[in-house]
Design brief:
The protein is an alpha/beta fold. The chain has twelve helices and 14 strands. It is globular. This is Phospho-2-dehydro-3-deoxyheptonate aldolase.
């Protein structure tokens, strides 16, 4: 096993020290890590990853933080979406293009209907590891290790051993994915002039198709009119900002891709990373590692989050109170959001902390059918979002973003939506190896449904600011 997994290391008197180093997290208790049988192989992989080139550069990280400052102020809206867990076999041009396309289409609808510019972050090019509630599961009467993502072990029940070499494979699949995304952007794929060619594919809902095509026609017509008048297109119109993010789960990987630049440490394996709901303990290794990097940081906030402890985590991760640094990603469930979210917002407000509030309406609303399928219902997901908008507005706060697990494929993993999928439809095309995702049609419908909520929230915030002024 990892030599730094020894819990006794957290008791050697280092807890009270405030000094941070790239290895100080190793002195803390750590959860949800792989159990590697060969430490020599771990050392070799760590050394290899430390030598490999970064995936992103620090200027892109700084750019994202600037944009998140604008989200924090209510001047932009944050859309973060993608797979629950990427698979190595999905590192294919058509699959990547579909993921990119659905995020572009959703952001176009949100810009048009919400009247705010967008910040786009994909759960892509690094989302290969997943925390699990249990280390083992029973398959065919045998107890085996749970699948924790392709970056840790294999989905095949016969090959569940945790293998550090899979982190190197994760790196190269992330590189290939990001390289293709960059080629799409530089080649004009994300240019708003090309939005008419972002094919709606399997969307059978005539109303949504017609409305989307109307939006595209009006946007392209407006652009053509401006250019006819001699006004050149803004660079943002021609190449959309697109950032990558993933849960920073395996700290061996994350620290190996962290580089010191001008006296500051940047994780250059992604622009944005978040701490999961299972690994956000104040005195544990994940918070210790994250407090030393310059990247904007997400914190998943679940039903067990104690408001006062959340305040302390934010203070520890952002002692300089930088704007655009912290994104609180609430995943409370439709059933509990009305009771829990006001307590969290009030605690952050009383502490006078500046954060971006984002709603993840997926993770708290997962259920299992009698046939064993994990699923989520479209209306329940939307309901938690609607309640979150209302609660923020009522407390003088504002919801700055949404966080979806979705795909550009025509899957049948979540019930409801424009195609009115039922539990009986789940086996038809259930391809997720972990959690259920919104399909193409459901994602488009979700964008249409929340766009008015964004516009209403921004309008009420502007009225409040003008009144105070």
């Amino acid at each position: 096993s990892f030599r730094f997994l020894d819990r006794s290391l957290a008791m050697n008197g280092t807890e009270g020290k405030s000094e941070w180093s790239l290895s100080s997290w190793r002195e803390r208790e750590i959860l949800q890590q792989p159990s590697y049988p060969d430490q020599t192989a771990v050392d070799r992989v760590e050394a290899q990853l430390s030598r490999l080139p970064p995936l992103v550069n620090q200027e892109e990280v700084i750019r994202l933080k600037v944009l998140l400052c604008q989200v924090q102020k209510g001047e932009r809206f944050l859309l973060l979406g993608g797979d629950c867990a990427e698979r190595f076999m999905d590192c294919a041009s058509s699959t990547i293009e579909k993921k990119f396309k659905i995020l572009l289409q959703m952001s176009l609808i949100l810009i048009w209907g919400g009247k705010l510019p967008m910040v786009r972050i994909g759960r892509i090019a690094g989302q290969y590891n997943k925390p699990r509630s249990s280390k083992t599961e029973i398959v065919d009467g045998k107890e085996i290790l749970c699948f924790k993502g392709d970056g840790i072990n294999d989905f095949d029940p016969k090959n569940r051993i945790h293998d550090p070499d899979r982190l190197v494979q994760m790196y190269f699949h992330s590189v290939a994915t990001l390289n293709f995304l960059r080629s799409l952007i530089s080649g004009g794929f994300s240019d708003l002039h090309a939005s008419a060619h972002w094919d709606l594919g399997y969307v059978k809902n005539t109303k949504n198709r017609t409305e989307y095509e109307r939006i595209v026609q009006q946007i392209v017509g407006s652009l053509n009119f401006l250019e006819t008048c001699g006004i050149p297109s803004d660079p943002v119109v021609q190449a959309a900002d697109f950032f990558i993010g993933h849960e920073g789960l395996v700290l061996l990987y994350e620290s190996a891709l962290t580089r010191k630049i001008n006296g500051k440490y940047f994780n250059l394996g992604a622009h944005f990373l978040w701490i999961g709901d299972r690994t956000r303990q104040l005195d544990h290794a994940h918070v210790e590692y994250f407090r030393g990097i310059e990247n904007p940081i997400g914190i998943k906030v679940g039903p067990t989050t104690v408001p006062s402890e959340l305040v302390e985590i934010i203070r520890k991760l952002n002692p300089k109170k930088e704007d655009g640094k912290i994104v609180l990603i609430t995943r409370l469930s439709d059933e509990k959001v009305a009771d829990l979210l006001p307590l969290l917002i009030s605690a952050v407000q009383r502490a006078e902390l500046k954060v971006v509030w984002q709603c993840d309406p997926m993770h708290g609303n997962t259920v299992k059918t009698h046939t064993g399928f994990k699923t989520r219902n479209f209306d329940t997901i939307l309901s938690e979002l609607m309640k979150s908008f209302e609660i923020h507005t009522s407390l003088g706060s504002h919801l700055g973003g949404v966080h979806y697990e979705l795909t550009g494929e025509d899957v049948t993993e979540c019930t409801g939506g424009p195609e009115d999928l039922g539990v009986h439809n789940l086996p038809e095309n259930y391809t997720s190896y972990c959690d259920p995702r919104l399909n193409y049609a459901q994602s488009i419908e979700m964008a249409f449904r929340i766009a008015p909520l964004i516009r209403k929230s921004a309008s009420m915030r502007n009225r409040s600011l003008n009144k105070n002024f």
